[in-house]
Amino acid sequence: MVNIGRVNTLQIHHIDEDGAWLKAGPHRVLLPATEVNTSMKDGDRLEVFLYQNTSGDLAATLKRPKAQVGEFALLKVSAVTRHGAFLDWGLEKDLLVPYSEQPERMRVGRNYIVRVYLDDQGRTVATARIDHCLEKEKEKIDLCEGQEVDLLLWEYTDLGAKVIINHRYGGLLYKNELMPGQRRGEQFKGYIKRLREDQKIDVSLRRGGIEEVKEAQQTILEALDKDGFLPLHDKSSPLEIKQLLGMSKKLFKKAVGGLYKNRQIELADNGIRRKG
């Protein structure tokens, strides 16, 4: 069984002047000659992305789109026609967002968070109706507190930023957790902070607990090994600490306290330095 709109591992059946013909169940899918190299031979297995080409036929490519079926991404509109908006997703054939899947009319040159999916005709298309794509039933939320997850920054709110967790769930990253310069569509790692009774999910960029403090201490020591001195202390602002070390002031103070107690650093009025 093959998955349209995703990367598949397929075997080469034969190669001719048109390209490499791959076994896809009972069918043969063409990897065009422009993507075939001399090292390829019959029987080789290739990782290819499957999609419908402009003629509506199933085709293969070694290229990777910016998002596969079931995934979210921030993509730019390259054209708008009577069929809908077309997004640049890294392949020659742009990705269609039908008008019915646009909460607001998309404009050329603007970026939108979308989810890639297969429509009723088996075509790879996208939707900007993000809320409809996220799992909300508590019984189906397969997460636990402290778990490392993939996050995509969806949109900013008064509380912080909405994020998409593992391309499946919606979550909230609070304002005091945000790193300077983070933008919509950016993807990064985070941790499940709390699974709330109202079925909402809070996330954090910090692991929490002893492991988090140890990681912070290692970050500080590496910075000291590089620069010899850090101009950070009790009166440094949270912004200064976050910009230099990427951690909160509270975590910084915990980490410094442990390092000082272990006699690994020396404290000065204007900063800290490595001991010895």
UniProtKB/TrEMBL annotation:
Coiled coil: none annotated. Gene3D superfamilies: Nucleic acid-binding proteins (2.40.50.140), Winged helix-like DNA-binding domain superfamily/Winged helix DNA-binding domain (1.10.10.10). InterPro entries: CvfB_fam, CvfB_S1_st, CvfB_WH, NA-bd_OB-fold, S1_domain, WH-like_DNA-bd_sf. Residues 3-63, 68-129, 144-206 form the S1 motif domain. One of its GO terms (molecular function) is nucleic acid binding. It holds the Pfam family S1_2. Belongs to the CvfB family. This is S1 motif domain-containing protein.
